[in-house]
């Protein structure tokens, strides 16, 4: 048994996986061998889910069946929707409400007993957008919109959020964002889902745990933090470069920068930046594009990028969602709406050759403390 300590499990191999590969040195991401740029350009989120869950990109007929299967599972029980409204009324944060609602979904999943991870996972994946859209509408004092089975996963979410069918640009942009966020090796939330899955707990537990892990500011929560930073820059009245110089002088971490695996710019950040540029060109609203690119180029000049601290997926995603009119605190839940596909794929893959995940901590406490009964302490 090795006594070498690997803080944060950095670089430790704990499983084999065919699902996604992150090459952090050159900034390349593949899902089952397909480059993320090609998938972002050419594959819908449902195609990516099929790829991750069933091992191949679907044929047209397989895709039609798969889409219909997911669309048939979008409805959420009234009791869960009522709880979602209660959470919205109580002012809960959307990511916390999503965590509670996913956990609650299991009570209404009549088929859950003994069924496979993929079947249960498909139901959870189909229902998450319904829960989230209902939460947002409840906050706005609006009734939930029923899912439309004729719309895509992305299009239906935007429809349920706003009550209006999205235009093609919005649907395609959102669908691309879902594709980009679907999987990323053993990141913290996927590992959390895997640890839970390795105990043979149900998949609701894995997804609930995954949502909790994703919510943190070092992980998925950073996309909201980036947008909060951009608003802070705006409110400061300073030029973004001056603002970020001051922030660095005060030793502030810049959200959306740095990554455990990437030592160069994240390929997804490159794709999202390009999309933001397209959206800014067509709307004429260039503010967040100018701020983000100015911050990025200042940090590059400062040598951060050279040190391997470069923009990650969260740096540009929020500005894209903002251009689509999506509220800031839905950015991380939207990440969860996509990453749930990866959590389920990994749990399914891992359980096929399961081994309980149970590392060790080096004990640094006292060896022999003398016990004193409570009344004598
Ligand atoms: C979807 C995702 O989860 S992507 C990541 C989203 N998270 C963020 O964007 C939050 C900001 N980024 C970070 O906090 C980090 O880069 C992490 C947590 C993502 C990865 O960090 P780790 O691999 O643990 O690296 P660690 O925190 O040890 O940082 C290494 C060095 O880079 C610096 N650094 C890392 N990120 C940043 C940053 N965003 N801004 C400034 N400096 C940074 C650290 O201060 C540290 O410097 P030091 O060696 O001089 O002390
Ligand atoms: O891989 C990681 O550590 C963080 C993550 O989830 C991502 O970048 O998508």
Task: Report on the architecture of this protein.
With 377 residues, the protein is mainly alpha-helical. The protein has two domains: 213 residues, Citrate Synthase, domain 1, CATH 1.10.580.10; 102 residues, Cytochrome p450-Terp, domain 2, CATH 1.10.230.10. Helices cover 56% and strands 3% of the residues. It has 16 helices and three strands. It has a three-stranded antiparallel sheet. A hairpin with a 4-residue loop joins strand 1 and strand 2. Helix 5 crosses helix 6, helix 8 runs antiparallel to helix 15 and helix 12 crosses helix 14. The relative contact order is 0.14. The model has no long low-confidence stretch (mean pLDDT 97). The site of oxaloacetate ion has 7 residues, from loops.
Could you provide a short overview of the structure?
The protein is mainly α. 56% of the residues lie in helices and 3% in strands. It starts with 19 loop residues before the first strand and ends in a 26-residue tail after the last helix.
Main pleated-sheet profile: 3 strands, antiparallel
Q: Judging by the overall fold, what is the CATH architecture of the largest domain? A: Orthogonal Bundle
Q: Please write the CATH class name of the largest domain.
A: Mainly Alpha
Strand portion = under 5%
Give the SSE string: EEEHHHHHHHHHHHHHHHH
- Average pLDDT, to the nearest integer? 97
The fourth-level CATH homologous superfamily of the largest domain is Citrate Synthase, domain 1
Helix content: 55-70%
Architecture blueprint of SSEs:
Elements: E1 20-23, E2 28-31, E3 34-35, H1 36-42, H2 45-54, H3 60-71, H4 78-89, H5 94-105, H6 117-139, H7 153-162, H8 168-181, H9 188-198, H10 203-214, H11 222-236, H12 240-249, H13 267-283, H14 287-301, H15 313-323, H16 331-351
Antiparallel strand pairs: 1-2, 2-3
Helix pairs in contact: 1-8, 2-16, 4-5, 4-6, 5-6, 5-10, 6-7, 6-16, 7-8, 8-15, 8-16, 9-10, 9-16, 10-16, 11-15, 12-14, 13-15
């Amino acid at each position: 048994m090795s006594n070498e300590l690997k803080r944060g499990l950095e670089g430790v191999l704990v499983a084999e996986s065919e699902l996604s590969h992150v090459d952090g040195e050159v900034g390349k991401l593949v899902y089952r061998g397909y480059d993320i740029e090609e998938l972002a350009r050419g594959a819908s989120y449902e195609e990516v889910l099929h790829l991750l869950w069933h091992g191949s990109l679907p044929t047209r007929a397989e895709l039609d069946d798969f889409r219909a299967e997911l669309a048939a599972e979008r409805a959420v029980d009234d009791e869960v929707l009522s709880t979602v409204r209660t959470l919205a009324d109580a002012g809960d944060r959307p990511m916390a409400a999503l965590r509670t609602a996913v956990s609650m979904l299991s009570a209404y999943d009549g088929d859950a007993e003994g069924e496979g991870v993929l079947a249960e996972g498909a139901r959870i994946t189909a229902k998450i957008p319904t829960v989230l859209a209902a939460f947002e509408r409840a906050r706005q004092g609006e009734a939930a919109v029923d899912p439309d089975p004729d719309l895509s996963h992305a299009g239906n979410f935007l429809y349920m959020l706003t009550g209006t069918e999205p235009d093609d640009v919005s649907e395609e942009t959102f669908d691309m964002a879902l594709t980009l966020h679907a999987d990323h090796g053993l990141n913290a939330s996927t590992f959390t889902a895997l640890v839970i899955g390795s105990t043979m707990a149900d998949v609701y537990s894995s997804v609930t745990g995954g949502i909790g892990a994703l919510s943190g500011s070092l992980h998925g929560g950073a996309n909201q933090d980036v947008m909060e930073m951009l608003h802070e820059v705006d409110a400061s009245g300073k030029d973004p470069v001056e603002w970020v110089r001051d922030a660095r002088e005060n030793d502030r971490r810049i959200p959306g920068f740095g990554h455990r695996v990437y030592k160069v710019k994240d390929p997804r950040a490159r794709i999202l930046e390009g999309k933001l540029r397209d959206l800014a060109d067509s709307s004429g609203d260039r503010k967040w594009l100018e701020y983000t690119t100015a911050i990025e180029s200042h940090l590059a000049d400062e040598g951060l990028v050279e040190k391997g601290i470069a923009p990650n997926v969260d740096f540009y995603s929020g500005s894209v969602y903002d251009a689509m009119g999506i509220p800031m605190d839905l950015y991380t839940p939207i990440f969860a709406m996509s990453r749930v596909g990866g959590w389920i794929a990994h749990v399914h893959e891992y359980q096929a050759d399961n081994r309980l995940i149970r590392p060790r901590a080096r004990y640094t406490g006292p060896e022999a403390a003398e016990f004193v009964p409570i009344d004598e302490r």
